[in-house]
Amino acid sequence: MKYLLMITMNPAVLDPLTEQERTAIFEAHEAFQAPLRETGELVGSATLADPSNSTTVKVRDGVPVVTDGPYLESKEFLAGFYVVDCETIDRANELAALIPDAALTGIEVRPVMGTSGLEM
Amino acid sequence: MNAGDVSTETLLRELAPQVLGALVRRYGHFDASEDAVQEALLAASVQWPEQGMPDSPRGWLITVASRRLTDQLRSEEARRKREETVFALEPAEQAAPAPGDEQPPDSDDTLTLLFLCCHPELSPPSQVALTLRAVGGLTTAQIATAFLVPEATMAQRISRAKQRIKQTGTRFELPPDAERTDRLRVVLHVLYLIFNEGYTATSGPELQRVELAAEAIRLARAVRQLLPDDGEVAGLLALMLLTHARRAARALPDGTLVPLAEQDRSTWDRRAIDEGVALITETLARAPVGPYQLQAAIAAVHAEAPKADETDWPQILGLYQILERLAPNPMVTLNHAVALAMVEGPQAGLDRLATLDDDKRVAKHHRLDAVRAHLHEMAGDTAAARAAYRAAARRTTSLPEQRYLESRASRLID
User: Fold this and answer.
1) What is the residue extent of each domain of chain A?
2) Which of A19, B65, B197, B398 is 20 to 30 A (C-alpha) from B391?
3) ipTM score here?
4) A2-49+76-83+91-111 sits in which CATH class?
5) Which candidate from A39, A41, A115 shows the least CB-CB separation from B202?
6) Helix (H) and strand (E) counts for chain A?
7) How far is CA B158 from the centre of its chain?
8) A120:B374 CB<8 A
9) Architecture, CATH, for domain B323-414
10) Which of A38, A44, A87 is nearest residue B123 as measured by Cβ atoms?
């Protein structure tokens, strides 16, 4: 089963970090990924730019309107994600706990919908 | 792909486990031999359609794979020597392979390979991946596509599985008699997983996927040929045939799932049904009964009903009662509850479902909600049915199931 591990960030958490702490987080991400490549559990990942770079697109009456900034008005934002393929939700939770950001904010673990289905 | 390519691929996949078996017997090194066989299969798939089939395809593959393997082993040896700066020993000369293989095809190797790939120390996904590659002769890319993961991810999974087998020190031979039954059960479960993975795939990008269900049937046939007396092997093959027979009816072209009761039975594959029914009938008459045989028997009763409302539910109920005694698990109880509802009325089914509410394995599973919804609908309790369908739709992680459950819910009007 594939899971999306969502890394939520918050400027109040991010801003006070020292250079050293940021480097440590960066290195911890590297350290997190290496064994997952080894086990064949890592499917994909991305780090997202700051939400100040976002545009939001809305279509109203068939007309697209593009505005600067994120859609959700919240201090928290999605900073990045991993997609992992694990045998159990317990394993996915275990992996989430190894993401360095889990110690700062929280990692949301959500199953990815599959395209196969059983006869009912 | 033209017909020539198809027949080359079919032949290559049949030969894959035989060639691998021959290499492992000769040189050991399951891990490296498996890589070498993959390279030889690839070379053949490119060369044969262009240059024609060699006189002995099996011998050709063994020769090419042996050459790759010995080259690799030599270069590893050379590297090790350089690293150690030791020059004393020449590598022991490997016996050069004969141009055509001298030994007759040893079909037992396929079984030995299956036992090895389905080693109990491996996780089920690793067993599945390794079986498809080493026994099924599929490429890593094909397996990766089938499981919708990147090729590098699948390659890593397969390579790790091979390392794990190496660590266990398992020899290339059939497991001892005392372990045979348990080990065979694992093999059958792996084939069942491969089948289900293929069977549940519906539309869209899945169309590009290797026919995993057909592959599972092919492997089950191979096992049955090797173990013709085993009732559960026959039962599993019959179950696959009878289930696969419904493939054209189980989803609409847009991927919408069609429940068994509403399927267009004229599109069921009669030949597969006839084969499955004959197989399970013959097997039940002679072998000690087992869970796969019972599930096949249930599938046969469904297959033999000309219309859904002519289904022999009392017989299905009886079969579920035996299955629940023999191999109790909550999914069996769920299906048992449906049969009970069809024979004794929806309330009897709902009462049976209530026994699962405290069962951690299934209490939060969408199928419990889905079956409950169905039985409420049968009982005419529209509000309860709708709520249960919605709950099931929220819990499932399958898109087609979710669409089906949502549509059932919205179809219900007070």
Assistant:
1) 2-49+76-83+91-111
2) B197
3) 0.82
4) alpha beta
5) A115
6) 3, 6
7) 16
8) yes
9) Alpha Horseshoe (1.25)
10) A87
